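SEQUENCE-TO-STRUCTURE ENTRY
===========================
What this section holds: a protein sequence and its matching fold, both as plain text.
Tokens: labelled as protein backbone structure tokens, with as many entries as the chain has residues.
Question of interest: how does this chain fold, as expressed in backbone structure tokens?
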Amino acid sequence: MFQLDHRLQQDCLLVTELPLSLVLLMNDSQYPWAILVPKIHGAREILDLSIAQQQQFWVESACLTRAMQKRYQPDKMNLAALGNVVEQLHVHHIARFRHDIAWPAPVWGRHPAIPYKPEQAAEECQAISQLLEELKA
């Protein structure tokens, strides 16, 4: 049975649920940062998914990327699946800007997270969810 890793639960907000994956928003207002987590028990690597699941995962990832590009109009979208701390398969989708505080370096460990204010978090989650619905992930 699928369970979201406790660190992702702790650090993220639920945006929506897609056919294969959960879409989470990293609770750090310094970067538009979403995380896609396939709801597959025990998946640690993309290769742990069936071929059909891999295809669906990449469809959902592309849809999330398009939604974030539409919402934030970033200079660059960064996608990463590291899993060094959180072993559960998850892919980071981070909208990067030449003016963000970590540019051009990776965002990990650069600056302490600044959580969203509740109303801002709700607005971001709703906007991303609505764009995903329009794009039909």
Observations:
- DSSP finds three helices and five strands in the chain.
- The helical segments are 6-11, 51-72, 118-135.
- Residues 6-135 form a domain with the HIT family, subunit A fold (CATH 3.30.428.10).
- The beta strands are 12-17, 21-26, 33-38, 76-80, 91-96.
